[in-house]
Amino acid sequence: MRRRTEIVVVDYGCGNLFSIQRALSKIGASSRVSRSAEEIRDADKIILPGVGAFGDGMDSLRSCGLIDVLLECASSGTPILGICLGMQLLMTESIEFGHHKGLNLIPGTVTRLSDHSSEHGLVKVPHIGWSPIHLSDDRQCTQDLFCGIDDGEYMYFLHSFFVTPETDRHCSAATVYGSNHFCCVVARDNIVGVQFHPELSAESGLRLLHNFAVGHDVSIDSETAAAAYAPLQEAVALHGEAL
Question: Is pTM, for the whole model, over 0.70?
């Protein structure tokens, strides 16, 4: 019998770990939460979650001694999925509350969303809620990741900053919020990052996690898909947003 793929969700003190691990459990993925460099090094796939400020995230990775092992895993070809702040940490640098160096796995910068909108005056920052994502025609690295997910699917966002990769070929999907037209999925070889929260994005988000963790050629039953809505409802209640 073939060994199940082991996914490590990196615990560096800045992640929404419970929701991600629960979503992985719902889709039948074998996962563990860990800050052990040895366990991360031995993982078949890695998820780097994150909420909060860029500088704090890098400081936490540094204090946990995890920067070198993440760079080593990336170099060796281990698939890595960054989520929200975890996606931003993949970039070269950020100007959030100063200037901070990132992991530089995907060249690019992190900057703040504008609160301007050409149609409706000001928009709220942070961007909290549902927005459609528009898939790039040139997304070789993420074809399998988006299998079964249509262009224009809505995903759940919660962020004030966004990434701009140095080259368009590293942007696999974009979205629009007010006057902001920004990249919401980055990809380079075995490294992928998503600005939205797939663990909070109902069936489409669960499908994306399933494609990354289990494989796009394995189906999700309706009961499992429905389970994706539970953590979403909790997140919406937590942030005081109406569906």
Answer: yes
